[in-house]
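Sequence, structure tokens reproduced for reference:
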Amino acid sequence: MLIVQKFGGSSVADKEKIFNVANRIGEQYEKGNKIVVVLSAQGNTTDILLKKANEINPDANKRELDMLLTTGEQQSVAFMSMALQKLGYPAISLNAAQVGIHSSSAYGKARIKKIDCNRIISELDKNNIVLIAGFQGINKFGDITTLGRGASDTTAVALAAVLSANFCEIYTDVDGIYSGDPRMIKHAKKIKEIGYDEMLELASLGANVLHNRSIEIAKKFNVALIVRSSISKESGTVVKGVSKLENTLIRGVAIDEDVARISIVGLEDKPGISFKIFSLMAKENITVDLIIQSIGRNTTKDISFAVDKSELKRTIEILEENKDYITYDYLKFEEKIAKLSIIGAGIASNTWFASKMFEALYRANVNIQMIASSEIKISVLIDIEDIVKAANAVHDKFLSENLIQE
């Protein structure tokens, strides 16, 4: 079998953990499997590099940041190759340029365009364990790019797709996907299996187990995906095309604290205003969420939406630079907020789910600032200081009524 494995930064944070992972890789290799391994940077290496960059130039351009940040993953694969070789296993480490992982040119959040498989296949044919630096690509200019924080998952799933791997294992510091972040939600339950669509919503809404683009690729190419612990041998969570849908149940409660709200006040109430605003956001690759437009009044209206905190400064700059083009009175923004979401297939068609969520928030004395919903999610913005209390209240409400599916 051909297996693609991905190990996160906490799994390779120090010497002991590197050798623990090396032994896990070796076990599969000894069974006669061909192994491709994708690694993240060790521990908090990426954060340390960002801090150092900020000390030198707080406004460093994204190309140079990508050049810097990708060194973390390259260290990981080199260390792992050394560890495997010490244990007696043949291994080779490769970066994005050596593999041929071609990406778009959007520094900081590039997308994979294609992957050349020749080098990987050649190394597998030599019976080598192939270790590949995650999180990175090479653009048309020959520059190294990063695929976004947490995107080593995307590297792994993309490789599994192009190599037609039997399955892709994502190893983390937890033993699967839970109905809520177990570090914040006291009674979170492990999920045995989950559909691609539900998992994509969980990832997009703040569940930090899988990178959302990795799930998009897994769904598109029907990659068999398993999330499991790098420490224990317990069975993990299977992410697949169709999960059990006998009943409409909640799959999870997601928390996102990396969110900010922007309100554009006093817009002209006429066609084309929304297009002007969000076409500007699209040109800058700024992801927008929870868009709400007020009812027109006195020839004006307001539009509010959420963005990642990291993109708030640039979003405000764009809106201010284009104030005459958009025509509005003033901007308001709020950073001390968080997004809380419930996810489950068919959730919007059952009005009781929204009612139960809002009841739980009411009883916890949590005020709702914005609401958005789709077929499989309901999201609210609330004060960040209330997020843990709110998440536990909502999760416990559905758990007490047996409405969370394992």
